[in-house]
Fold this sequence. Notes:
- The complex is a heterodimer.
- By secondary structure, chain A is mainly α.
- Chain A has helices at 4-17, 21-42, 47-64, 75-100, 113-130, 133-144, 149-156, 160-178.
- Chain A has 8 helices and no strands.
- The radius of gyration of chain A is 19 Å and the shape is flat.
- Chain A starts with a helix and ends with a helix.
- By secondary structure, chain B is an all-alpha fold.
- Chain B has 6 helices and no strands.
- In chain B, helix 5 (127-140) crosses helix 6 (154-168).
- Chain B is rod-shaped.
- Chains A and B meet through helix 2, helix 3, helix 6 and helix 8 of A and helix 1 and helix 2 of B.
Amino acid sequence: MMTDRVWRERGLRDAVAAGDDAAWRAWYEAEYAPLEAYVLWRCGSLRDLADDVLQDTWLMAVRRVRHFQPEAGSFHGWLCGIAANVLRNMLRSRRRRSARQEPLNGDTAHLDPAIVDRERSERIATALATIPVRYEAALRMKYLDNRTVAEIATEWGETEKGVESLLGRARAAFREAYGDD
Amino acid sequence: MTDDELLTPRPAASNDGLKSNLLSRTAGRVRFDRRIRIVGRIGICIACFAAGLGVALLRPERASIVEYVVVRNEPGPVKPNVPSAPPSRALSAAELELQAEQTLVKADAARQFREAGDIYLRDYADYRAALRCYRNFLDEADPADRVVTPEDTWLLTSLKRAREQESAQ
């Protein structure tokens, strides 16, 4: 069944694909803030990393907007998928780079709080990129979208108990990927 | 820190400069794609035109057109006692039949119908055409020619016999 969202997003996609930059501006304005919030959350609120991810995500989105299928999911979901892939690649390359720049003594506890906070954010981002997609989606709905367990259960067609269990497993997977403080 | 503390998004100032910069870059990309498409379409039109022009200029000269003019030979004044000149070449059955239809002299017409019938029967096994010619021959022929002779074909013999029976009745 065609929903309003599908009709609207299909119309916008076709307009943008035809070169209508006004349609693109409207779409961009509507989607920028939710995507920025998601990317910041995924980046552990690291502003510079989030800016890099946002930039690559939007540039890739405008290049590939013809391939967006509204029937398969929302534009926001599509953008989040691109952003997650971009972030994963960036974290991978950062990890390779940082492995070559390891401090000689290996002890960072004495460093200033800003650096500690940054490292924590990077670990959050890495942990969120590591856990399974379904766990990440559950945590996103819970912490970023501030949905209740009942709302998540309704949207996913599951029982509240099932969602609670899923959230518990997701938190455990996140904690395992994050490690100890 | 607890999981909730780690996972709860921290407030962060929005980067408006990045937002407007990205908007101008992405909108520019949309416009660029549109221009590329327009240029592509124009290019296709030019390519088609050039291809047509090339074909027109480079194609080989066509062979000279041979025009066939049909000249109709009107029958001349009738000269009953002067036999018509024999044809310079062997005429086909259709030509003979046509000539017979146009000939006003009955004897000549009968002879040509018969020859045409013979050719249809012998060379083409076209019984329908042969039958038509033989019937015309019998219509045009003198009574002496309507008698069965050894030179007659089997079809003409049959026709002559049938006519004889009809006239006897």
